Amino acid sequence: QVQLQESGPGLVKPPETLSLTCTVSRGSVSGYHWSWIRQPPGKGLEWIGYIYSSGSTNYNPSLKSRVTMSVDTSKSQFSLKLNSVTAADTAMYYCARGGATWNYFLDLWGQGTLVTVSS
Amino acid sequence: DIVMTQSPDSLSVSLGERATINCKSSQSISYSSNNKNYLAWYQQKPGLPPQLLIYWASTRESGVPDRFSGSGSGTDFTLTISGLQAEDVAVYFCQQYYTTPYTFGQGTKLEIK
C-alpha cells in the first residue's frame, strides 16, 4: 500500500522560508503528478501546486511568486518551498497524489503536517 | 479561477435518513469530447486528511460504501448519502480538476440530528 508522509519544521519565523518534503513509501514518484494542498486551522482547502515526476510544475497564481517545488525520484520524494512567509501561511500542509495526466483527482493524501508561522 | 460553491454549509440528518450536499461550479467542468465531469468529492473526519470518495462526479473510489453516490454534470453536482450512519459525521468537500488552479468548495459539515 503506497503511503505519503510529510516532514519538515513545525515552526517557521517570518519572513523565512517554509520547507517541506513528502516521502512516498512502497511506491514510486514516477509517472504521477504530485500536489501540495494547505488548510488553515478550521478553514477550507487551497491547492498550492503540483510537480510531475519529470520535474515540470504548475503553481497556483495566488502563490506562484513564492513557491518552488522539486522532485527527487531516486529518493521517492518531492518537496515544497514557500518563501517570505507570514502568519497567513500558518496551516496544515498536505501532499497528495494525482494521476498520469495533469487533470486528475487526488486519490492518496499524506497525514499532513502543521506549520505555524510565528516569531 | 473556477469558484466552487457548496450548499448547505452545515447539515443535520437523523441516522438512517438521506443527506444531500450540493456543489455548483462557476463554469462548466465537463469536456464534451469525452463526456467526463472533472469533479471529485472528499470526506474529512476530524484530525484526519481528506479522503477521496467520488471522482468523475459519479464513480465511487474503491472501498467506499455504496450508500455514497454522486451525480450531476456541467455546473451542478450532488453528493448523496443514503442511510446515514454515525461514522459519516465529517466535512465534505467538492473539488474541480478541470483546470488549474484546482479549487475546492468551502466544505459542508454533516452532523447527526
**Ends apart, CA distance between termini of chain B:** 36 Å
| General shape of chain B | globular
SSE class of chain B:
mainly beta
Count of helices of chain A? 0
Which term fits the overall shape of chain A?
globular
Instruction: Report low-confidence residues of chain A grouped into runs of 5 or more.
Output: none
Give the chain pair forming the largest contact, with residue counts. A-B, 24 and 25 residues
Spell out the helices and strands of chain B N to C: EEEEEEEEEEEEE
Describe the structure.
The complex is a heterodimer of chains A (119) and B (113). Chain A is an all-beta fold. Chain A contains no helices and eleven strands. Chain A has strands at residues 3-7, 11-12, 18-25, 33-39, 46-52, 57-59, 67-72, 77-82, 91-97, 108-109, 113-117. In chain A, strands 2, 4, 5, 6, 9, 10 and 11 form a seven-stranded mixed β-sheet that branches. A four-stranded antiparallel β-sheet of chain A has the order 1-3-8-7, with no helix packed on it. In chain A, strand 7 and strand 8 form a beta hairpin. The termini of chain A are far apart. Chain B has strands at residues 4-7, 10-13, 19-25, 30-31, 36-37, 39-44, 51-55, 59-60, 68-73, 76-81, 90-96, 103-104, 108-112. The radius of gyration of chain B is 13 Å and the shape is globular. At the A-B interface, strand 5 and strand 10 of A face strand 7 and strand 12 of B.
SSE layout:
The complex is a heterodimer of chains A (119) and B (113).
Chain A: E1 3-7, E2 11-12, E3 18-25, E4 33-39, E5 46-52, E6 57-59, E7 67-72, E8 77-82, E9 91-97, E10 108-109, E11 113-117
Parallel strand pairs in A: 2-11
Antiparallel strand pairs in A: 1-3, 3-8, 4-5, 4-9, 5-6, 7-8, 9-10, 9-11
Chain B: E1 4-7, E2 10-13, E3 19-25, E4 30-31, E5 36-37, E6 39-44, E7 51-55, E8 59-60, E9 68-73, E10 76-81, E11 90-96, E12 103-104, E13 108-112
Parallel strand pairs in B: 2-13
Antiparallel strand pairs in B: 1-3, 3-10, 4-5, 6-7, 6-11, 7-8, 9-10, 11-12, 11-13
